[in-house]
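Okay, can you check this protein?
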Amino acid sequence: MWTVCGRRGTAGTGNSSGRGNDWGCVNALGRNHRGIGTRTALAALAGAAVVTAGAVAFGGASAAVGPAPAPIVQAAQASCLTDGAGLCTVTHGLGRVPEVIVVSANTPGQFNGFMLNTVQGSFTATTFQVRAMFSQTTPKTFGQIWFSYAAYATATAPTTPATTTPTTPSMTPTPATTSQAAS
């Protein structure tokens, strides 16, 4: 929608608004409305300047660089049947022991909710364990659980050849023998 703004009235004469010389606007529907105030306009201009400055300042920093070498990551959904202690063993495909595994329970609406944690010390190169609990003291025993996980392992760092410092052979003086001393 378009808007036309202009000065209402002239200096020293009356005008229809009764407010002296101020700015007014008429929009596309022909309705009169007062324009934005000077303070509001300056505040909007200052806000736009801050946003522009922020975009310029952070524009060059947008090419984020992560750790080198990048970690190996596997994310998947899984389900399993817990044992009598609420434990379940999950197979992963990282091929090495994960550093971190993040789990999140996915509970279908008709089933009871449960808390889900990884079991400390259970990470291997092929599996890890999770424990499902209804409360801090009540495990979800012999029940089906559904969850998502993300497993992170460090990538093998490139090996650098060991550098050796060259040694200079030292000259050991040969002791003089009697035949050399007579000459």
In short: The radius of gyration is 39 Å. The first helix runs from residue 38 to 59. The longest strand covers residues 72-81.
